[in-house]
Design goal:
Blueprint: E1 7-10, H1 24-27, E2 50-55, E3 64-67, E4 73-75, H2 79-89
Parallel strand pairs: 1-2
Antiparallel strand pairs: 2-3, 3-4
Length: 108
């Protein structure tokens, strides 16, 4: 059975304390390793709980991977390309209260 990829969608400001300067340095420790597909295990703690992270305003797809256990983040694209996407998305804003609420019984 094929494992479904879990993803979450967030704003850049939810990842960093300050949106000034190089953002990638604040959120990804290992910028030399790139995972085009979700890692089967977290390279940091060996957890199987790795999810895709979509950044609103960056791309219409997963930009980073995150371990749900140790919270380390990993690159899907080259560091410079990811940094450009993060810089572009840092001014993106939304009011989550405008989204409405889907009852748990109707969620996937």
């Amino acid at each position: 059975m094929k494992k479904l990829l879990a993803t979450k969608m967030i704003l850049v400001e939810e990842l960093v304390d300050s949106i000034k300067g190089r953002l990638l340095d604040k959120i990804v420790k290992d910028q030399g390793s790139i995972y085009k597909k979700s890692p089967r295990f977290c390279p940091e703690c060996d957890s199987k709980d790795v999810v895709g992270v979509e950044i609103m305003g960056a791309r219409n797809e997963v930009l980073l991977w995150e371990c749900e256990d140790c919270y380390e983040m990993f690159l899907k694209y080259e560091a410079e390309e990811t940094e450009l996407d993060l810089q572009e998305a840092k001014s993106y804003w939304t009011n989550k209260n405008d989204w409405g609420c889907i009852p748990r019984s109707k969620q996937n």
